[in-house]
Design brief:
The structure is a homodimer.
Chain A (H helix, E strand, L loop, with lengths): L2 H8 L2 H9 L5 E2 H5 L6 H13 L3 E6 L2 E6 L4 H11 L8
Antiparallel strand pairs in A: 1-3, 2-3
Chain A binds a DNA duplex through helix 3 and helix 4.
Chain lengths: 92, 92
DNA sequence: GCATTATTTAGAATTTCATCTAAATATCAG
DNA sequence: CTGATATTTAGATGAAATTCTAAATAATGC
C-alpha cells in the first residue's frame, strides 16, 4: 500500500523482471529464481518487497509457494502520472 | 536515461513532489527549494537526478535556472505498465 | 520419525542514497 | 572590481538497500 512502497518496489530491475516473468501465469519462488543468478534467499527478499507493495500475491500449495501478479496497484501509479499531465490530482 | 534512471528518480517522495510543484509552469531552483525544509544543495541534487532521468529540463535565464517538466519520458513507464497487462512488451 | 525439497529468516558485508556543511562558480548591480 | 544573490560541486556521514551464507521452518515421501 502507498505510493512509496510501490515506486520503491518498481525501482529495482530484478523486481521489474520478476513481474515480467509472471505475466503469463503464477510461478513458484523456485521457478522465478531459476531465471536469475542470485541465491534463493535474495529472490525471496525481492518477492517479499513485491508482496508488501501489493504487486504480487502468494498462494501456498503444498510444498511450493506460487506467486502471481496483482496489477490493480499499478492503477495508482498510472493515476499519479495522469495527474502530472494537467489533471488535478492532490497526491504527492 | 532509460527505465532504471526514470524509476529510480520517481522512487523518492521529494522528487515526486518537485514534479508535482512544476505542474503549473517552470520555476527556479530557489522557488522549488522554498517548498521544502532542506538545503539548497540537497534540492540541487534532486533536480540533477530528475534532469538526468529526462523528467525535467533546465533553462538558464540570467541569474536563475528555471526548471520545467518534461513528461514525454513517462510514456516509457506507462508503456511498460501496459506491457505487464498482457501486451507483448519485451522491455525489462 | 528421518531425510529431502522449497522457501524464508537472521545476520553480516558492501554498495547506494539522501542529506548536510563548506567551498566553488556564475551573474548581476553599483 | 566588489559585494550580493543563485545554484552547483565536493566531500563527509548516517541510513537504507542489495546480496550473500548459514540456519530455521514447513511439507512430502519412505
Amino acid at each position: 500500500m502507498g505510493f512509496q512502497e510501490t515506486f520503491k518496489a518498481l525501482s529495482d530491475p530484478t523486481r521489474r523482471e520478476i513481474l515480467h516473468i509472471l505475466r503469463d501465469g503464477a510461478k513458484t519462488a523456485g521457478e522465478i529464481g531459476s531465471h536469475f543468478s542470485m541465491t534463493g534467499a535474495t529472490i525471496s527478499h525481492h518477492l517479499s518487497v513485491l508482496r508488501e507493495a501489493g504487486l504480487v500475491i502468494d498462494d501456498k500449495r503444498g510444498k511450493c509457494i506460487y506467486y502471481e501478479l496483482n496489477l490493480s496497484v499499478l492503477d495508482e501509479i498510472t493515476g499519479w502520472i495522469a495527474g502530472l499531465r494537467g489533471e488535478s490530482s492532490d497526491e504527492k
